[in-house]
Design goal:
116 residues; alpha+beta; 2,3-Dihydroxybiphenyl 1,2-Dioxygenase, domain 1; four-stranded mixed beta sheet; 3 helices; 22% helix; globular
Length: 116
């Protein structure tokens, strides 16, 4: 087996709100069906599904590696939604990170690695 990609299926509590959230982050949306969208930005792709499981959503963590954490943070700060929260940029031994919770409770680690 020689994998070429891996994609996650992200649950939503409010499908339209989550679609708007990911578009505000800069991802392009393609509709796969009435209950499934494909989001992409550069080489990064994931599925957004019109499905909600509270245990899955509140335990789902994803890491998005970026080349400029300050630019990413400015984008994150511009998102206006009561169901989205984030923490300021934090320095870790391996790089800088912004913790960003999406509308369904999914936790993104927006990360700029040391040397990146």
């Amino acid at each position: 087996m020689q994998p070429t990609d891996i994609r996650v299926f992200i649950p939503t509590q409010d499908y339209q709100e989550s679609q708007a959230f990911y578009q505000a982050l800069g991802f392009a949306m393609d509709v796969a069906s009435d209950k499934l969208s494909i989001f992409s930005l550069g080489e990064c792709t994931f599925f957004l599904q019109d499905y909600f499981d509270p245990a899955l959503a509140s335990n789902l963590m994803l890491q998005l590696i970026v080349s400029d954490i300050d630019d990413a943070f400015e984008t994150i700060k511009s998102i206006s939604s009561p169901n989205v929260k984030y923490q300021p940029i934090k320095q870790e031994p391996w790089g800088k990170v912004v913790y960003l919770w999406g509308p369904a409770g999914e936790l993104w680690h927006i990360t700029q690695l040391n040397g990146g």
